[in-house]
Amino acid sequence: MEYPFWDVPLLGGGMLIGIIAILHVFVAHFAIGSGLFLVLSEIRARRTGDEALLGYLKRHSTFFILVALVFGAISGVGIWWAIGLVHPSATSALIHIFVWAWAIEWVFFIVELLAAFIYYYGWNRLDPRTHIRVGWIYLAGAWLSLFMINGILTFMLTPGKWVETRSIVDAFFNPSMLPSLVVRTAVAVALAGLYALITASAEADESLRERVVKYASKWVLVGMTVIPIGGIWYISRIPDQAREISMGGAPVVTLFAAASVVFSAFVFLATLAGPFLFPRRFHVTFAFVIVALGLVTTGVTEWVREAVRKPYIIYDYMYSNAVRTEDVQNVWERGVLASAKWSLLDEQDKQDLLRMGEKVFRFHCQSCHTVNGFNGIKFAVKGWKKDFIDMQLQNLDQLKGYMPPFLGTEEERKALTEWLYSLNNPVEVQQAASR
Amino acid sequence: MPVVIPPPDPAGLPAPAWLLQILLVFTFILHILAMNLLVGGTTIMAIGLRKGKHSPFHAELAKRLSRALPVVMSFTITLGIAPLLFVQVLYGQAFYTASILMAWPWLSVVALVLLAYYGLYLVQFRPDWLGRWVTPIAWMSALFILLVGLLYTHNATLKLTPEKWAPMYDASPAGLHLNWSEPTLIPRYLHFMVAAFAVAGLGIALLGLLARKRGDSWGDEAVRYGAKWFIGATLVQLGVGLWFLFSLPSNFLQSFIGGNTVNTVVLWAGVLAAVLGLLLVNRSLPGAVLLTVVAITLMSVTRHSLRQMYLQPHIDVNTIPVNPQWGVFIIFAVLLVIGLATVGWMVWQFYQAGEPKQAAASQ
Ligand code: HEM
Q: Do the chains contact at A71 and B114, CB–CB below 8 Å?
């Protein structure tokens, strides 16, 4: 409402965030889990004097640095870039509510980063005890960063008591924070094993390869077993409406929720039937197949997690189209275009319903819909008569629980109806104009 | 066309504006120091890779830089996150709006940083595999990093000029604008980049000094070579700085040449510190480093005062309501101390342990 709206054609801003976020999540959890993987494995290798395993861990940590520290860190910054561009009001809210939580996260991130570098460059330099200690510090920094981010992310779906108290403690320790932390920690463990399957399967020494493949597969299996337990707990904590959306309320979301379960099962079964039972025959191609399955699982799950929050971007506080719940009355009285200063409404717009309708769409709908791409409105209203469009707009939130109420004035609704109709009926509109 | 300014966030500021401003400027200084080493270092490494074909000194310099730069990159990014947070807290109204207008170029910063970073790692880890592609890859990283700096200056200057926003957005909501029409853009950008070569020169001279202490004769030449960059860049800076100053709108210019005492003193004290550093560099390197840090600090304060002046008619952070969250702030402060102590302990362990006992893990 308060900021200019960035028009991302076809893809839509939400999808753009999604792409960056999914890649980031898939790498960042690996970065955290690998802390545990590296330290525990190093302890084991040192205790048993297993030089071969130690050699593998050194090679694995190069891969870890290149993937986790570079791609993980920068894609994380990338999410921040993208949400600020696509959802400035919500980003601003998250920044302002959680400034010091972000600042604390930054401290943990610095510790994490430095520890990772020193762990990596210290393999042949530090004595084993110090090296392992640095590994633990890395793990602590990484997991505490997750702890911080997790509190902020879960807040968006379950702000809990914050809605009344406006206290950062309530915001952070919100109802779904703990279950989500359990799920994410388990995901981190599973992904640590998943990525280790790649590096393990590329090892030249056959007996080492077999050992590490088997070992890494256990990490995947343990993580994947804990995820559903935490998941059920998590689902019990989210708002009723969010649960309904994922279980029949919105067919596409339900489909994706089902896909998330199915793909998780695939990852589990593929790991069990492949690297766990037959580590000797395990091949790097198979490793990539499991990783791809893991990526798909992450993708659909994250997508569902985002989708069930509709119609809000921050539950009970701000709708997806950046209208704050407390401003609903105000916007409804003044209209969308008068409230959205960046619509830059001028005389020409006021005289041209189609121009006006397009602007209403941009500032009231386009944060979730594109015109003719992803979730394209053109396809949604195909075959609809004007009366029907108008009726839908009047009852938007009642008909579709995952959409915010339409807050435009009568004139704006009429304009939007005309514009929506014109998307699939350009000729008739032209005729109408000439009449 | 009206000037449209988004309202401040209804949550208010989580601490008094002065504290947030200090944090912003302080963390910005840290970011800019690392950024300087990165920009200058990467370019000088690319030059060194070429010259290194005939000169062992340059080959060695490029090698040492290639080992340090990925870490410097990581620092630049990490130290950039803090001012990014505080700039959004204080100036979100301007920051989001300007960024949205140049959304695609702005988003490309992330991709450019990523590619430049991987380029640096390639040069460090796989120079043999790259063969004659080493130098081009190093140049790619250098150019991308220089381009990121330019995009930053586009963003920073666009933030300061709210009058431009509405006409730009009216022309197109696609997020493809840049701020080329801004008269201060080029001098401002050059001002940052020339400084980067001076600071990186000092960095190389320091590397040389450390090497010399270990009895490594490479150090002597590095000290001289680094100082040469520092002196050359700083001399150029005298011209570029003046160009930047005189490209400012005249009322702002006035405030720096007597119109406002504090502004004038801070700016010219900064210039003085840089000039003294210039005179001192061949006698006392640590002295020159110290003076340069002082100069950068004063310049960063000047940059902040300039921002306040630009935004004054539209955005005044001192009028935003404050809802302090002291409890969490104290937790942050305590954790910062613990975090820095932990980092200090690790770095100390690392240096104490001395050079690798075998070939480094990376080789
Ligand atoms: C890696 C290449 C980078 C380079 C060359 C670079 C360069 C610069 C330059 C030249 C400026 C000053 C712009 C001006 O005032 O005209 C600047 C400001 C800034 N940089 Fe960076 N930067 C880099 C990466 C980053 C990253 C990754 C972040 C964030 C994570 C970041 C955060 C910031 C912030 C927040 C400011 C502005 C602070 C303020 O307005 O007070 N930078 N940077």
A: yes
Show the domains of chain A with their CATH numbers.
13-319 (1.20.1630), 327-434 (1.10.760)
Q: Which of B29, B73, B118, B152 for mutating ligand 1's site (highest number of atoms within 8 Å of CB)? A: B152
Helix (H) or strand (E) holding A155: helix A128-157
Chain B from 40 to 79: CB within 8 A of any A CB: 71, 74, 77-78
Q: How far apart are CA A151 and CA A184, in angstroms?
A: 12
- Report residue B360's pLDDT band, with 50, 70 and 90 as the boundaries: very low
Instruction: Express each pLDDT in A265-296 by its tens digit.
Output: 999 999 999 999 999 989 999 999 999 999 99
From B96, B343, B355, residue closest to A3, measured CB to CB: B96
Complex ipTM: 0.94
Torsion of CA B21, B23, B25, B29, to 10 degrees: 180
The atom number, within ligand 1, closest to the CA of B146 reads 5
Section A402-416 average pLDDT: 94
Ligand 1, from B25, B29, B35: best to mutate by most atoms within 8 Å of Cβ?
Answer: B35
Alpha carbon distance A336, A159 (integer Å): 26
Query: Is residue B21 in contact with ligand 1, taking CB distance under 6 Å?
Result: no
CA-wise closest residue to A322 among A13, A8, A101, A19: A13
